[in-house]
Structures are given as C-alpha cells and as structure tokens.
Specification:
Length: 256
Amino acid sequence: MKHQKRVSLNSCLVALCSITALILLSINPVSAKQKLKVLIFCKTAGYHHESIAAGVVAIKKLGAENNFEADSTTDSRKFTYDNLKQYAAVIFLSTTHDVLDETQQKEFMKYIEAGGGFVGVHAATDCEYNWQWYGNLVGAYFDSHPAQQDAIIDVVDPYNIATKHLPAHWKRFDEWYNFKWIEPNLHVLLTIDETSYTGGKNPAYHPMAWYHAYDGGRAFYTELGHTNESYADPLYLQHLLGGIKYAMGTVKAIDQ
C-alpha cells in the first residue's frame, strides 16, 4: 500500500513538472529546445538602402557560422506574436519611416514584453517617428547626415562583446547620422569624434552604438552599416554579431 502511494505521488509530481514546463514554453518567445532564430526585417517606406541586400546575406552567414538561423522578410504581416515568438531577436535592418500598422505594433510590443530581443541597424532610427514606444526601444531618432566620409569612432566600453575586439579609436568610412532625439538611459558603447569629420550636429554627446533593457526585452542599436563594404568588414561584422548575441539572450551580462 505504501509502495502504491509513493508511485502515485511520483506520478503526480512528474505530471505537475510536465505541465509547468509546457506553460513556461508557451510564455517564452523561444523554446529552449529549438535552435535559436532571428528575423531580419527590412521593409522600407522611405529611403531604401542598397546595402540591405548585402546585410541580409552577411547576417545569414553570421548565423551559419555561429549556430543560429536567420529568416528575412519585408512583409509586415509577419508581425504577429504567434509568428514572432519563434525568434530570439528581430533585426530592423535599415527600415525607414512607417513600416508597421497599429495592430502590428501591438503584436511587436507583446513580443518584446515577453522577453524578445531587438537589433536596430543604421536607418532603424529613421523609422516610426510617430510611435514613441519604438523610439524608446531603438534609442534615438534620425535628424540628418553629411556626405559619407572617414571619421574616428571612440570605444566607450572596451569590455563589451560588441566592442572588445575594436581599436580604441577606430577610423572608418561610413554615413554618420545626427540625431534629433536620444534616449537618456542608454548604455553607450561607441561615440563619434565630431572633430574628425565635418557635418556633425551632436557635439556634446554623439553616441553611435548602444544597448539597454527595455519593457521586458533587450535592445541593441548600431548606427554603422550604410555602405555595402560594411558587410565585408570583419571588425564591423564582429560588432554586429555581438549585438545580435546580446539581443538573442545568449549573453546574460553583455560586459562579461
């Protein structure tokens, strides 16, 4: 009789654990048993960057080399929570202007609130100006840019997974954004030295890459990545990969 009670109790515990696991998996955007995936979203309603095509290829290659899968789309109808929850992070690759309708915005918010990750690349700050939640997520809004030119990028955090491989003062050719608004509570990784080029309009504080926790999720942004050549540059690609890893949640503390 005692043996039967122990068997019955063990069976109940096993059943309870199984139910709990199923509940947790249904809440978490990505099941722990699945290979991690990212969604590259590259819809444009304004300027379309030629480098988007090179960026998609490069990110998919990074995935193949670093054990994650990458899908790409310009279809905003993919922004339902049921679809997004399969992805560890969503990458806005030079998206411009209004790319999501109100329903899609709510679905994306639900995804981030459930612990999803976000990566914004270059023109992701030239996007969704009338949706402040998104502005807070990406961290800034684009204002203008001078002609493409060389400039010096200063590494603020040299211990970060997205920057620890970079030279302290990184001379680089790209298109350099000025920002009309910058979220004040960001962990800044890179700044630009406005004395090293012409046309800068944020002299007191001009961040170029950052990350932060936001509304239940993780967000990383890099202003770099306008040119096709960026996506063949090992230094840039390692920088981008570090941000993707953070957004996917594979790095618990990005500074370690």
